[in-house]
TrEMBL record:
EC number: 3.5.1.88
Name by which UniProt lists this protein: Peptide deformylase
Role noted for this protein: Removes the formyl group from the N-terminal Met of newly synthesized proteins. Requires at least a dipeptide for an efficient rate of reaction. N-terminal L-methionine is a prerequisite for activity but the enzyme has broad specificity at other positions.
GO molecular function, one term: peptide deformylase activity
Obligatory cofactor(s): Fe(2+)
Family: Belongs to the polypeptide deformylase family.
Catalytic class of the enzyme: hydrolase
Residues noted as binding Fe cation in the record, renumbered to the chain: 98, 140, 144
Record keywords, A-Z: Hydrolase, Iron, Metal-binding, Protein biosynthesis
Cofactor binding, per record: Binds 1 Fe(2+) ion.
Signal peptide coordinates: none
Active-site feature positions: 141
Amino acid sequence: MILPIYVYGQSALRKPTEEIGPDYEGLKELIDNMYETMYNASGVGLAAPQIGLSIRLFVVDADVMGDEYEECKGFKRAFINPEITNKSQETVSMEEGCLSLPGINESVSRAKWVEVRYQDENMQEHEEKIEGYAARVFQHEYDHLEGHVFTDRISPLRRQLIKNKLNNIAKGKTACRYKTK
């Protein structure tokens, strides 16, 4: 089922998220719905706060970017209760967009790699090092679980320059080809 994506201005995007356990009702169906919603919107990641749920869950499928970024080949996972355990001091700036901020793209500086711990859709523990563009996708979605959107990571001047666009999104004055809330 395709769910509406919460856009900038919705309080769900700023709420703290809570860990979930193996008894979380409808988890498999929720993950399937999140993938379907993400694909429908042509995204490579979707976090639970973006569909109005304050839980520590996001899905990614960056395989479509595998031709350009080798590390994205096969990078499809559900991340439950993820945490960043270590990250590089070296950062890389690249342009990002977000399904919750339609029409806005800005350069964001992020760690070159991250070491993470999480549970998959079967609640199996994993630890891995994620590098390059895949690390960027992970950090972007992880930020949603912390109540942040990527525009929080740009300079105050850039934020001021896009203030009208952000206000229009919050007021529902933006064209979007997918269902939003």
